[in-house]
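step=encode ok
step=design start
structure_in=
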């Protein structure tokens, strides 16, 4: 019997000028409700940012993005899926998120929590490399 690991992810984007709607992907946030798993990773490429935008404030941007990776934000006491939704909510700011995308990873048998986390970590690295780096 085939099992499924279900997850959701969104991209974190730097939008230098909201009216122009141009952005660079600067991070990835991924969550699995069933396994109470949430991962966020940031990647700022200064050369890419300066090629896209005239005067990116990379220090301020780095500080603001670090809030997505911290566990001491106001939503820290929420269940993982609510914390993900709170952080992934559409915002009109220089840091925005893409729409949330669902995904399914088929596995041959019900995984243990450790196995599911390893599978989710692998998928996270794959998505991060393809969509952010």
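sequence_out=
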């Amino acid at each position: 019997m085939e099992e499924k690991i279900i997850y959701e992810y969104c991209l974190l984007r730097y939008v230098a000028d909201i009216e122009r709607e141009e952005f660079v992907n600067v991070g990835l946030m991924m969550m699995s409700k069933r396994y109470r798993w949430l991962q966020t990773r940031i990647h700022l490429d200064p050369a890419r940012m300066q090629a896209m935008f005239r005067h990116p404030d990379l220090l301020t941007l780095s500080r603001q993005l670090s809030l997505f990776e911290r566990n001491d934000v106001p939503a820290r006491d929420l269940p993982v899926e609510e914390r993900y939704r709170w952080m992934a909510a559409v915002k009109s700011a220089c840091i925005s998120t893409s729409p949330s995308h669902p995904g399914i990873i088929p596995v041959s048998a019900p995984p243990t929590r450790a196995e599911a986390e390893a599978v989710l970590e692998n998928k996270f690295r794959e998505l991060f490399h393809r969509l952010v780096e």
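step=design ok
step=annotate ok -> Helices lie at 46-52, 58-69, 80-88, 113-131.
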